[in-house]
Amino acid sequence: MLNSLLVANRGEIARRIIRTARRLGIRTVAVYSEADAGLPFVLEADEAVLLGPANPAQSYRNTEAILTAAKTTGAEAIHPGYGFLSENAAFAATVADNGLIWVGPGPDAIDAMGDKINARNLMAAAGVPVAPGTTDPARTVGEALEAAGEIGYPVMVKAAAGGGGMGMAVANDADALRTEYDRVRGFAERMFGDGSVLIERYFPRVRHIEVQILGLCDGRVVALGERECSVQRRNQKLVEETPSPALSPGKRAELLAAAVRAGEAVDYRNAGTVECLFDPAGDEFFFLEMNTRLQVEHPVTEAVFGIDLVEEQLRIASGLAPTFDPDALTVTGHAIEVRVNAEDPKRFLPGPGAITAWVEPSGDGVRVDAGYSAGNVVTPSYDSLMAKLVVHGADRADALERLRAAVAGFEVAGPKVNLPFFAELLGNPEFISGDYDTGIVGRMRASK
């Protein structure tokens, strides 16, 4: 096992990685920006190194500063968490070139999955279902219109290099496509340095379901169940649960097998997630993208499998076998996670500020992964996520009941907070039934 680990991230995920590393006896190094100097992850690491100002380009995306911190502290490995540099193939390669261990998949797998069009084509060749769409970038609006004519409206216009729900728009007709093509292309050039655009069939009533995979040291790829991620705002997740209420046992088996094929197609190692769209009307799923990192919502998988995914990541990076038997995986109960963000619960606009009160819920089956505590400041420099509230129950009804109590018992004052939205959702008949899709938040807001 590794002896020392630098965590190249911040907030709740840095704190969560540090917690597991400490349990395993691994010395931890935190890196932080000036804005984050007082956050819990900085104080809880064995050593902490200031990277620079709040601007991520000068801190959490500053590869030179991170590598210097690793060398000066004697860190043996780097865990990137999620976001920032976690899916940067060049950084992963540079880490290895500097004699350090990268806790994640290899640069080739990251690079192969980083472009949505390339990933779609690879998956299709591996026998993984993909939605009707372009196999090459739509280089002009004319090419986009021609592709949409073949696919049929409505279509999704996507930045090929995008991720995290960014760089996507729906076009219901040719006029809308002309507008959205230019907008998405411009956004992609600014945000990702790559203006390539993908045109794909849009499903108005669809569910977003993903599969957790682990590529083991012996070459096997295993699937650790699925996660339902259909409660979203602006194509970004708010709630995740497992098992998905939408899947029959047969369809679940098909989905997990397809995810394993996806991992095998790129010789995947370490933790990753195969994201899919599921069309309940046709009872069919399609590959969406692969996230070559640990996901925000990984705790729900940990809850039902009784596995620490960060520990498994560290073991794989160390060349060790997993703690579990891949041939005897079992799911126990039901788990749900809600993302506690510093944003208003109606329009979901960011609302940073100083935290004057912070009281976390507790009880059987309740877990809180928090990046903040009372006295800290949520700045506008980073994502609005403050904490993840996770519950594990005997079944979905039990998990919902525990989550209602936990949401009611979570007190945050100072910044705006979306906890009232979750209280509203937990009383929504559509969500309670389990028969919901990615349009649920829009319908809730339209009914107000």
Automatic annotation (TrEMBL):
It holds the Pfam family Biotin_carb_N. Residues 120-318 form the ATP-grasp domain. The keyword Nucleotide-binding applies. The keyword Cell wall biogenesis/degradation does not apply. It comes from the Bacteria. Gene3D superfamilies: ATP-grasp fold, B domain. Keywords: ATP-binding, Biotin, Ligase, Nucleotide-binding. Residues 1-446 form the Biotin carboxylation domain. This is Biotin carboxylase N-terminal domain-containing protein.
